[in-house]
Amino acid sequence: MTDYSKKTNIEQDKSEDLYRRLEPIFKKGITGVNDRTFGDIERIVGELKTDWNTEHVLIKLIDDIERIASYTIKPYTVGDTFKGLNDPDYSLIRDGFITIGAEANAGKSSILTALSLDILKHNRDTAFLFYSLDDSIYLSGKRILSQITGENQFRSSSFNLAALSEQDEQNIKHLLNRIVIKERLNMNTLELEAVKTRELCGAKKIIIGIDYLQIIPTPPDMIRREYYNDIVKALKEIQKRLEPDGCIIFLLSQFNRDTESTTHRYRETSEIENQSDVCLDIAGKLKKIKDPDTGKPKIIPDMDDNTRRVKVSKNKLGKKGRQWKTEINAAFNFTALTVQRDGEGDSITADDEEDNFKRKLK
Question: 228 with 269: CB under 8 angstroms?
Answer without folding.
Answer: yes
